[in-house]
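User: Could you go from structure to sequence for me? I need the amino acid at each position, not a summary. Structure tokens:
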């Protein structure tokens, strides 16, 4: 049973249906969802707006319609999974565009490099999800790019510990099969890049198994037909994961 204050919170967060429909129409990945899926998307969006905090950064003010766009795009990966899969974080931080991120890397000799670089989005371990608004607006156009899905895939990935491209799988999913499919596709991409061949996926996916899972998730939602045709095994695993009821 849902408590009365939960109900009230959801009622207050619920976006205007016409404004919501305008957001959906603006992004091809949302516009092509069935009417049933779109009403489910509205429920998820409402839950995200009720549960999460949206903070503007980098000197900008965040308009309601911009918050709604972030929340609606964020609802896409958990359409069937449910917003409980976002329990690992509470806050979205939105910059106007690409933002400077502190980074820390340890090289092969164990030397720590610290610095800043430009990012479109970033998922911190158990921290906020940081997004650049320009990149959010460029996402979900059916071109294989979706920074929101990318960062949220990282959040989902780390629900069972490390960010390692191995999220908590559903009952009935074969763990070994997941590992085999993902490591083969990852190895294939690394080999292609080493040999100067045409990469079969965005080269950024070769950074690490965690990035591979995040990039593959972007492709799964943004260009599903392309992924099904070019990486059928990967598509199958991601479909079983993100859409267990289909
Ligand atoms: Zn990433």
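Assistant: Here is the amino acid at each position, in order:
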């Amino acid at each position: 049973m849902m408590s009365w204050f939960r109900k009230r919170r959801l009622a207050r967060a619920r976006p205007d249906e016409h404004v919501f429909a305008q957001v959906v129409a603006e992004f091809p990945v949302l516009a092509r969802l069935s009417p049933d899926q779109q009403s489910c998307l509205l429920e998820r969006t409402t839950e995200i707006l009720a549960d999460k905090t949206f903070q503007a950064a980098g000197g900008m003010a965040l308009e309601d319609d911009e918050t709604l766009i972030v929340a609606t795009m964020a609802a896409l990966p958990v359409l069937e999974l449910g917003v409980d899969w976002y329990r690992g974080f509470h806050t979205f931080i939105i910059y106007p565009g690409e933002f400077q991120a502190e980074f820390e890397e340890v090289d092969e000799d164990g030397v720590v490099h610290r610095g800043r670089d430009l990012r479109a989005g970033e998922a911190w371990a158990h921290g906020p999800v940081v997004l650049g608004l320009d990149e959010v607006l460029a996402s979900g156009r059916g071109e294989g790019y979706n920074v929101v899905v990318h960062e949220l895939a990282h959040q989902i990935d780390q629900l069972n510990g490390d960010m390692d491209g191995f999220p908590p799988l559903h009952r009935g999913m074969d763990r070994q099969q997941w590992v085999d499919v993902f490591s083969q596709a990852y190895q294939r991409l690394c080999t292609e890049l080493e040999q100067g061949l045409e990469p079969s996926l965005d080269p950024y996916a070769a950074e690490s198994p965690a990035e591979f899972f995040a990039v593959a998730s972007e492709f799964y939602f943004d260009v599903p037909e392309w992924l099904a045709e070019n990486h059928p095994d990967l598509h199958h695993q991601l479909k079983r994961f993100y859409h267990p009821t289909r």
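One structural detail worth keeping in mind: The radius of gyration is 18 Å.
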